[in-house]
Amino acid sequence: MPNQLAVVRSLRQDVIGPQHHYLFGEIATMPPEAYDSVTDAMAAILERVAVAVDWRRLLVEASWRHMTLHPDRKETLLRYQSEATGVCGECLAEALLQENVGAPDWEREPNAELRHQAVDWAAVVYNVLQHRRGAIRHEYRTPHRGR
User: Fold this and answer.
1) What is the value of pTM for the model shown?
2) 63 burial via Cβ count (<10 Å: 0-12, 13-18, 19+)
3) What CA–CA distance (Å, rounded) separates 111 from 108?
4) Residue 6: pLDDT band with limits 50, 70, 90
5) DSSP state of 136
6) For residue 40, what are the CA distances in angstroms to 5, 18, 81?
7) What angle do CA 85, 86, 88 make, to 5 degrees?
8) Which of 10, 23, 70, 101 is 20 to 30 A from 62 in CA distance terms?
9) How far apart are CA 88 and CA 93, in angstroms?
């Protein structure tokens, strides 16, 4: 799926940086097994995010934002709780990135503040990975699918 590939590629580049490929597609600047392992790890991160998101709430908040900020869609105002129709990608992204708890005030804060764009998250993870061995064993709890 194009979205899955785009996310995995973006995360992979954050971890290992841009890599040179030979003309016939093989990776030239690192072992292919390591490259594939990073790709699999980034796909695992995406899967965890996809399971962790409350999609029903995300659609409600995105449709609420869409109806508030895009006046051409006001006719769907009464239906936003049961179905999210006509929601644009911008509204979905903003609803996903919104950090406020509770009902967002889309008129006052229509856009999420992107405060983490400059964080080299892969370097942070690398620096704190040493603490993983001392962590308490805890099973990752995933919400039920299809809520």
Assistant:
1) 0.72
2) buried
3) 9
4) very high
5) P
6) 11, 17, 36
7) 125
8) 10
9) 9
